[in-house]
Design goal:
It holds the Pfam family IFRD_C. The chain is built from 20 helices and 2 strands. With about 450 residues, it is an all-alpha fold. It folds into 2 domains: about 300 residues, Leucine-rich Repeat Variant (Alpha Horseshoe); about 100 residues, no CATH class. It has a two-stranded antiparallel ribbon. Helix 4 runs parallel beside helix 6, helix 7 packs antiparallel against helix 8 and helix 10 crosses helix 16.
Length: about 450
């Protein structure tokens, strides 16, 4: 089995469409639209009025009204990039969504979390994204400690991952959010804190969000003790009954071994003490865990169907763990390719594949539209869709692009360039095995 077979499997998986049942988007798009207007594409003002009315409805006391308003906003953000609306109203929308997370029902919290994530992806890098991050993280962190509904926790974890990925230019932002995520399944226990066993849905959501955000970490200096503890925990998840938990854990482990170069570190350590452990001792222990993980991965790549398992889920697990096995044994990274508007989006590393799958799941039905028009995602995935040229051969900016260019937020161009440069640097560093894994403090 070689790289071509792995690429075919991933191409088929990515081209299969967005059928994630747990996506909040699947909730929002099925809601009846209470702010109904006659369809007339020639009158843009009607679309703006629809969003304005939905925004006003978030002030209402009735929770069901706010839920329908959030569904309308999410659907609008899925169907089109709402740059003009965001330029005028993004602060209002952000704070109303934060209020919904603080006081709303489980459904309203899930919808508000998803709306904040959509807002972050729409504004892209820059001051607005940093404001979204700074204002939303404290509320999300507190809500994750006191909420128990698995679907709500899952939505908030996805939101935290997205807003940090987009707006967390400083490494401390990434590290803080990674810690918040990990504490969902490893809480700090105090006198008034009761540990609750996380459900498979929560574990899967945490590991997936954590791995997605870890792809943006750029810290040097390997925290071997923390890395060892995270590998040990993720390895234990490979033995769980829930298939989604096993797959999420397997991909996270592949990412950690892709980002860390433990063999090189082993030959260059000087025996100094780090976090109370000798680095050489920690590396030997990690390599021992790696051997155990190889056996687990090999078994999962050949697992026979059990009770309650569908053929699709079983094949998905086998294919995923065959790719992980190829990577751990031979160093072959998974390759994937999917067509959008006749042009290919390609991935060549676990980091890129995890990013693409996470964004695709989060956006759901809005994935294709955002990949075609969202400049931030173009830079993240190195994707350049075809631009429309006039008969004279000259490219003409659309009215939407002109607004972006003239907007005060055009200072985002500098931030976008810095982000792209950082992503390129990260990619080069990871390919050379120079980048390390941050997983937090002693809770890990």
């Amino acid at each position: 089995m070689g790289k071509r077979s792995a690429q075919r499997r991933h191409a088929a998986m990515l081209d299969s469409g967005s059928d994630d049942d747990s996506s909040v988007n699947s909730i929002s798009t099925t809601q009846p639209n209470v702010f109904s207007f006659p369809v007339n594409e020639e009158v843009q003002v009607e679309k703006d009025t629809l969003l304005d009315e939905a925004l006003d409805a978030l002030y209402e006391k009735r929770g069901s009204t706010r839920e329908k308003a959030l569904s309308t906003i999410i659907e609008a953000f899925n169907n089109e990039l709402q740059h003009l609306f965001v330029e005028k109203k993004f602060v209002t929308l952000l704070h109303l969504c934060i209020a919904s997370i603080k006081k709303g029902s489980t459904k309203e919290i899930s919808l508000a979390s998803h709306a904040i994530g959509m807002l972050a992806l729409t504004v892209g890098c820059g001051d607005n994204a940093r404001e979204i991050l700074e204002d939303s993280v404290p509320t999300l962190s507190q809500a994750l400690k006191c909420r128990s509904d698995p679907s709500t926790i899952s939505s908030m974890l996805e939101c935290l991952a997205i807003v940090t990925f987009v707006g967390g230019n400083a490494q401390e932002n990434t590290e803080k959010s990674l810690q918040i995520m990990w504490q969902v399944v490893h809480p700090k226990l105090g006198s008034n804190v009761v540990a609750m066993k996380p459900t498979p849905l929560v574990i899967t959501a945490m590991v997936s969000a954590w791995a997605f955000l870890l792809t943006s970490a750029d810290s040097y200096g390997l925290d071997l003790k923390s890395c060892q503890e995270s590998i040990l925990y993720l390895s234990s998840l490979l033995d769980k009954e829930d298939r989604s938990v096993r797959i999420a854990a397997g991909e996270a482990l592949a990412l950690i071994f892709e980002m860390g170069s433990f063999e090189k570190s082993s030959s260059s350590e000087d025996g100094s003490i780090q976090n109370g452990n000798k680095p050489r001792e920690s590396i030997v222990q990690i390599q021992g865990l790696r051997a155990k993980i190889l056996n687990q991965v090999r078994s999962l790549s050949m697992e026979a169907g059990g009770k309650g398992s569908t053929k699709k889920d079983l094949n998905n697990q086998r294919n995923t763990f065959k790719d992980i096995l190829e990577f751990l044994e031979h160093g072959y990274n998974p390759e994937s390719s999917m067509k959008i508007g006749g042009y290919s989006v390609e991935t060549f590393t676990w980091s890129q594949l995890i990013q693409l799958n996470f964004v695709k799941h989060f956006l759901g039905g809005g994935f294709v539209k955002h990949m075609q028009k969202n400049e931030f995602l173009h830079e993240v995935f190195g994707f350049t869709p075809q631009k429309k040229y006039h008969i004279d051969g000259q490219y003409r900016m659309s009215s939407e692009e002109k607004r972006l260019f003239k907007s005060p937020n055009s200072v985002q161009n500098k931030a976008r360039t810095q982000y792209l440069n950082r992503q390129r640097m990260l990619s080069k560093g990871r390919n050379a095995g120079h980048y390390s894994v941050f997983v937090g403090d002693d809770e890990f």
